[in-house]
Amino acid sequence: MREPTGSYNRPSDEELKKRLTARQYDVMCNNGTEAPYSSEYWDSDAEGIYVNAVTGEPLFTSYDKFSSGCGWPSFSKPIDEASIREKNDTSHGMVRTEVRSTGGDFHLGHVFTDGPEERGGLRYCINGAAIRFIPREDIEVEGYSYLLPYLKSREREAENKK
After folding, report:
1. What residue stretches are annotated with the MsrB domain (predicted)?
2. Alpha-carbon distance 79 to 60, whole Å?
3. pLDDT value for 110
4. In this prediction, what percent of the chain has a pLDDT beyond 90?
5. What's phi and psi for 112, nearest 5 deg?
6. Of the residues 22, 44, 58, 145, which has the maximum number of CB atoms within 10 A of its CB?
């Protein structure tokens, strides 16, 4: 599924501080969490893909996004399991599973087992500050044309579930 369009490596901390907003830097580099309902993506239903805000690594599709009512963008699965890694998180007196990007090792959010059963039962609760949305009509221009056949298969899956 992966067709490298460049490096997904982590830039220097100096470069990150120049490129990211304070909120993005806190979320992605310091394992922060944005406030619920504060992201432009939490309730978006636009068609396209979500990529790592720094590296551009493809992470999720709009077909796997669902309304969870939690205030953060929620997805049932990543585009490619290899694009994320999970890590045990015991911060804040809780036991959770943190989701990090493989490319760049950035904090994205957490994954929970309370997602829709018909979609596999997982809820990837992702900070909007850690992702960038690419609308379907811009996918080719942005260099992700290799994902178009995948999006079409996901579109068929979504239609079959209705």
Report:
1. 13-136
2. 5
3. 96
4. 79
5. -125, 160
6. 58
Q: Find, among 83, 86, 90, the residue nearest to 59 by Cα.
A: 83
* 123-134 average pLDDT score: 98
CB-based contact 37:2 (threshold 8 Å): no
Nearest Cα residue to 21 out of 109, 142, 136, 127: 127
Active site residue 29: no
Can you give the length of the chain in residues? 162
Structural domain boundaries in the chain = 35-160
- For the chain, give the secondary structure using H, E and C: CCCCCCCCCCCCHHHHHHHCCHHHHHHHHHCCCCCCCCCCCCCCCCCEEEEECCCCCEEEEHHHEECCCCCCCEECCCCCHHHEEEEEECHHHCCEEEEEECCCCCEEEEEECCCCHHHCCCEEEECHHHEEEEEHHHCCCCCCHHHHHHHHHHHHHHHHHC
What pLDDT was estimated at residue 161? 67
